[in-house]
Specification:
The protein is an alpha/beta fold and 284 residues long. 56% of the residues lie in helices and 13% in strands. It has one domain: 3-Layer(aba) Sandwich (Rossmann fold), CATH 3.40.50.720. The longest helix has 29 residues. It is globular.
Length: 284
């Protein structure tokens, strides 16, 4: 399939988590390239702002508040989008949350929260929309994993588990689609340090949940944002959509993602020690 055939122009593209960060940037990049949009988020205010900006770029936009962890709501929204727009060509399973805490200190409820959104949200979206992507005759499914989908870090067990899960689920799905000969491309995306609010939101959630957050942890979060989260989400979105239009099954976003992927492949037994060393330096 040529790149011109894969172009998003004129396609109906659904993006979850479109109210901020990479999701908003994806919606606006797709709008610039002539896509028709269906957008969702749990934040109605953020979603409304994204929709307004996308419409200013000339895109038609269908929106709805959606909690991706709610399976029945996801399937209902898939039916609503198809009823309204007639077809769906592309799905971007982007919605996600971050979490921090050691295995010993993390509550079970936190694992449930992160996995229900990051992992099961992707499964819900895929099962709800895949039949419609197949029916479109030119579908593409895009699941957003993370650099932590191939590299685990201390203090990120819930997040890493969810993003490794997204990677495995997507690769299994790709094999099934290829075996069945369905007209659907499947891509897994591994962003590196993108300048979004996901990490700050995790800290805010911890505070709201009653967990004591020290000044040292807040200072460490600020340093993490400044040192590691450098790529603008708009640049990440361009890389992702370029990868989709090129038909790439695996899309690495950022030099840090490319570098870490190479290190993990070259020295799989030693990389945890290297990651710990980098983490210590970043916390100084």
């Amino acid at each position: 399939m040529s790149r011109s055939v894969r172009s998003v122009s004129g396609k109906v593209c659904f993006v979850t988590g479109a109210g901020s960060g990479i999701g908003r940037a994806l919606a606006l990049e797709l709008a610039k390239r002539g896509a028709r949009l269906a957008l969702s988020d749990v934040s109605e205010a953020g979603l409304a702002e994204t929709a307004q900006r996308a419409r200013a770029l000339g895109a038609s936009v269908h929106t709805a508040r959606l909690d991706v962890s709610d399976r029945e709501a996801f399937f209902a929204y898939a039916r609503a989008v198809v009823d309204e727009l007639g077809v769906v060509h592309q799905l971007y399973n982007n919605a996600g949350v971050a979490s921090s805490g050691t295995v010993l200190d993390s509550d079970w409820s936190e694992y449930q929260r992160v996995l229900s959104i990051n992992m099961f949200g992707v499964i819900h979206g895929t099962q709800a929309f895949l039949p419609h992507l197949i029916a479109s005759g030119a579908g593409h499914l895009v699941n957003i994993s993370s650099l932590n989908g191939f590299m685990a870090q201390s203090g990120l067990s819930a997040y890493s588990a969810s993003k490794f899960g997204v990677r495995g689920f997507t690769e299994a799905l790709r094999a099934e689609v290829l075996e069945a000969g369905h007209p659907v491309g499947v891509s897994v995306v591994h962003p590196g340090g993108v300048r979004t609010s996901i990490a700050r939101s995790a800290l805010a959630h911890a505070k709201a949940s009653g967990h004591a957050v020290t000044e040292q942890e807040e200072a460490q979060q600020r340093r993490y944002d400044e040192k590691l989260l450098r790529m603008p989400p708009e640049q990440a979105a361009r890389i992702i959509v370029d990868g989709v239009e090129a038909g790439n099954p695996r899309i690495l976003v950022g030099r840090d993602a490319v570098l870490v992927d190479a290190i993990v492949r070259l020295v799989p037994r030693r990389y945890p020690a290297l990651v710990a060393r980098v983490a210590r330096r970043a916390s100084r």
